């Protein structure tokens, strides 16, 4: 058992200075002052001068690696545990990407189970960029209902030269089957949608909301901040259609493309335009490829997304965009938890999972990361590494 004393708790709303008692993998008690019972084996963690908030949820991670757009040598490697936990992330949703051939749903499920055995919570999407959707059982709805870790479909590519160029009706069928699969299984039934920079933009999503009975909560378009044009379209989609938008955090802030918008900047733009903070999520696109193409679609170069960028952009929301921490946390905690229907995640509350981050209250540098009641990172250093991680120093 752990007792975190005198921490400034953000649940994500500001609860003030509190003590938090953890037992097993749950939050047992939250109160202004809890007694220390050494006889019961309670280990005290001093939280004075630190902010305590929920472990981050990353809803878009290529846990198997991604890429391949420049040939087999450009396939990015599988992610390792500490690449996740060093960024304060305690829950990930794994997905396939462009390559639904050499990377499969069976591989994805196995990797997700391995990461969970190592200490974090994992889920996956069925499918990849391609339509028809490549599944494990042969049918989107069956994957969602019968496979415990499958919470939706994705990432389906739209408005992109790498997509299957589906029709509106084909896309609507995917969203409909995903929604019903979610209803019958008690899961999110969410479609994660890769948005390219094609001229169609969010037209397919608007079509579904205008012409069907499907809810906006069943679709999450990502990479909305890839250009200022798409960012503006996303803001209008959120305001006019009640849609949800996801901003990608994996970009180098020092080398942004001319039209690209930092996730934290995009969040501030959306809030100023009148979008509710409840309608925005961040995801990292971690371990996915960040390919560079010429105007004619020729591959020019490649980077690799980092899960740790999720925390960076949340932190920049506070330090650069001057948002309250309680607001900056929403896109990486409570908002993805609600969309993904992860009832035990995204909040500091009695009975919820003990997924927590303790950080310096001023600099927001991470001190401690706790996943399912186990300390994964302490004093900024990795305590629990993945099974095959090299024994190297993990300096951030």
Write up what this structure looks like:
The protein is 25% helix and 27% strand. The protein is an alpha/beta fold and 396 residues long. Strands 1, 2, 3, 4, 5, 16, 17, 18 and 19 form a 9-stranded mixed sheet that branches. A 6-stranded parallel sheet has the order 6-7-8-9-10-11. The protein has a two-stranded parallel ribbon with strand order 12-13. The longest helix is centred in the middle third of the chain and has 18 residues, at 168-185. The radius of gyration is 20 Å and the shape is globular. The model has no long low-confidence stretch (mean pLDDT 93).
Q: What's the structural blueprint in terms of helices and strands?
A:
Elements: E1 2-10, E2 14-23, E3 26-31, E4 43-46, E5 50-54, E6 56-61, H1 81-85, E7 89-94, H2 105-118, E8 121-126, H3 140-146, E9 150-158, H4 168-185, E10 190-195, H5 203-211, E11 219-222, H6 228-241, E12 245-248, H7 263-272, E13 280-283, E14 289-293, E15 299-304, H8 308-319, H9 325-328, H10 334-339, E16 356-360, E17 366-371, E18 374-378, E19 381-382
Parallel strand pairs: 1-4, 1-5, 6-7, 7-8, 8-9, 9-10, 10-11, 12-13
Antiparallel strand pairs: 1-2, 2-3, 5-16, 14-15, 16-17, 17-18, 18-19
Helix pairs in contact: 3-4, 7-8
């Amino acid at each position: 058992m752990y007792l975190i004393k005198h921490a400034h708790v953000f649940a994500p709303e500001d609860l003030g200075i509190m003590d938090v008692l953890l037992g097993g993998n749950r939050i047992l008690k939250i109160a202004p002052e809890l007694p220390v019972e050494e006889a019961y084996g309670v280990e005290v963690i001093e939280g004075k001068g630190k902010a305590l908030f929920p472990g981050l949820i990353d809803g878009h991670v290529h846990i198997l690696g991604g890429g391949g757009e420049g040939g087999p040598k450009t396939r990015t490697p599988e992610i390792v545990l500490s690449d996740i936990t060093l960024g304060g992330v305690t829950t990930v949703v794994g997905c396939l990407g462009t390559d639904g051939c050499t990377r499969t749903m069976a591989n994805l499920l196995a990797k997700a189970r391995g990461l969970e055995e190592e200490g974090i919570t994992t889920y996956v999407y069925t499918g990849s960029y391609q339509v028809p959707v490549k599944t494990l059982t042969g049918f989107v709805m069956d994957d969602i209902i019968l496979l415990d870790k499958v919470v939706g479909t994705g990432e389906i590519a739209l408005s992109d030269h790498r997509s299957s160029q589906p029709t509106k009706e084909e896309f609507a069928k995917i969203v409909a089957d995903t929604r019903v699969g979610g209803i019958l299984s008690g899961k999110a039934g969410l479609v994660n949608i890769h948005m390219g920079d094609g001229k169609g933009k969010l037209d397919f999503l608007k079509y579904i909301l205008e012409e069907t009975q499907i809810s906006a909560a069943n679709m999450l378009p990502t990479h909305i901040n890839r250009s200022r044009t798409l960012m503006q379209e996303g803001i209008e989609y959120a305001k006019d259609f009640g849609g949800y938008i996801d901003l990608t955090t994996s970009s180098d802030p020092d080398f942004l493309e001319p039209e690209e918008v930092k996730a934290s900047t995009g969040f501030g733009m959306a809030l100023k335009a009148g979008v509710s903070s409840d309608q925005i999520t961040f995801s990292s696109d971690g371990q996915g490829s960040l390919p560079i193409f010429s105007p004619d679609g020729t591959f020019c170069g490649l980077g690799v997304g980092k899960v740790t960028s999720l925390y960076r952009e949340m932190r920049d929301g506070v330090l650069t965009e001057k948002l309250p921490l309680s607001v900056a946390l929403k896109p990486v905690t409570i908002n993805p938890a609600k969309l993904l229907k992860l009832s035990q995640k995204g909040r500091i509350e009695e009975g919820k999972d003990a997924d927590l981050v303790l950080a310096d209250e001023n600099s927001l540098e991470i001190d401690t990361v706790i996943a399912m009641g186990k300390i994964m990172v302490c004093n900024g250093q990795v305590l629990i590494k993945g099974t095959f991680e090299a024994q190297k120093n993990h300096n951030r």
